[in-house]
Design goal:
single chain, MetI-like fold, two-stranded antiparallel sheet, 15 helices, 4 strands, 3% strand
Length: 338
Amino acid sequence: MWAYVVRRSMVGIVLLLAVTFVTFFLFFASPVDAARYACGKNCTEAQRDQVRKALGYDKPWYEQWGSFVKGTVTGREYPADPELRAAAPEVVTECDAPCMGYSHLNSTTVNELITEYAPITIALGLVAMVMWLVGGVLFGIMAAVFKGSFLDRAIVGATLIAFAFPTFFIGVFFLKYLAVKWQIIPFPSYVSIEEGGLWTWLVNLLAPAFTLALVFTAGYVRMTRAFVIESMTEDYIRTARSKGLPGRVVLFKHGLRAALTPIVTMTGLDLATLLGGAIITETVFAYPGLGLLTVQASNAWDLPTIIGIVVLSAAFVVVANILVDISYAFIDPRVRLG
């Protein structure tokens, strides 16, 4: 089992290195002068040169990539140029490992920005995941049990309608009607647990989390329904029924377990993608998470922040895949041999 985990972890590290390599190539091998955006419109050429040295933009992109990879292991100091650090030691900024870079526009490390914004996106994603898992699996089982009935068609049809609406439409609808016009829910405004308590924190997350969950629920309903229907026709299900096991036990212990593998796969990848930044939802609800940070960094051409978010998103996906593979080993021990 441990050998299986080590193999998957090594593959994940190689993938992360490949992602960072491609990211630096795409961003810094382009003809766009990143120092011009980092310095601002009114900077002189001498000031831009200083910014290039301070952020390491004066070096080839592959050397910048090497410094970035080294910084994720050992940490870095900014300004990146040793001469600038020696000339002004009072302005040196320490960036502890894993260092994601320094945002000149925000005058802070990317690590601090991610530390500030990521918990909101994580909370939003976890609440949304619970919603779409409970709703998707529950309604998928109901649709499979009552296959071909009016309830089956109603569930599948309703989920497809919800899936057809874009995220920003659902979010604006919740804001305009449920929160403002009808006042069914309080106007969503992120409040941390320390500030408002657990209940206030959860209530303010419901609307944006449900907006995300609606889009994902349709896929889980269809996936659960399809695999439960398929598994219920297998020979071992007929054997279990012939032994006189109750229908509930046959369904949940034998039939549903066969559908866990694709559901686990979808959950891991969807959550990883979501934690990378629920850009539209966070923008609509003005939640200061990674999605909103991504929009702000893109508008300001803040390359270090964008790179940090890209690498963090890739890390979420890689870690999620590793956890999915490990969960496979518990669900079906045969995959350990792969």
